[in-house]
Structure formats: C-alpha cells, structure tokens
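Take a look at the protein record below with the fold in mind.
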Amino acid sequence: MCSHIILTTSVILSSVLYWSTLQAVSCEHNVIIPSEGYERLGQHESAARHYFWNTVTGDVQWDDPGDVPFETASGLLYWVGKDGQQEYSDKEALQYTWVEGWSEQYERPFFYNQDTGESVWDRPPDLAWRRVSVPEEL
C-alpha cells in the first residue's frame, strides 16, 4: 500500500517569506522529493530595509536602537535630519549619554559619558550600532 503526503513549509529569512513544498511518497521505501527550492513570496509583515548590528557586542536586531547613522559604500557616515536632508554630523548628539570627541593631543577619537563624566578610548556598546542594508535578492 502506498501513501502520498504533501508537506508545505514556509521560512522567513532576512524578513522575506519563502515557501516550499515537500512531497513524501511511501511504498517500500520512504522517499522525500523536495521541490526545486524555496520560492520568494514577499516581505514578511515586520520587514525592514535595514537591520542593526552592534560592532562591540555582536548583537543583531530589527528594531532601530536610536540614532544609528546611515553608511555609504565608501564608509562615510551620515544622518537624516528632520527635514529629510543628509547631515554629516549628528545634530542631536548632545541629548545622548555617550558622545564622541576628538583628542588633538593623541589624534584619535575618545568617548565621553555626559552623565558620569567618564572618558574612554574604546567605543562603548551604546555607540557601536551600525545600520546594515538587507540585500534585495533575499
């Protein structure tokens, strides 16, 4: 006696919904015949064009942690102002706990905590978020 089972699965990768059908045919042997692969059906309802990666902690998340700059292919950082224009400095920086400064003496950036007065050379996790574009082919 043979039985024929069709199993449909869906997978969400990088906020894109993919769909596949597996067919299982059982006679003398269990044989699973996969379809040609996953078919892209469209964006998941929580889809975003970017995800956020913390270069210090390694954390990755969909939710914007706040004031993460955009980055061009050449590595230039920019923010988008309230008027929608690109700005090459963060006009809102003074409202945040950690701000980045520049040491003329050591010719390198440092980070200053406006609440505690602490200064450090290493980028604190709060300032280490990067906006990463989701590839269109996913």
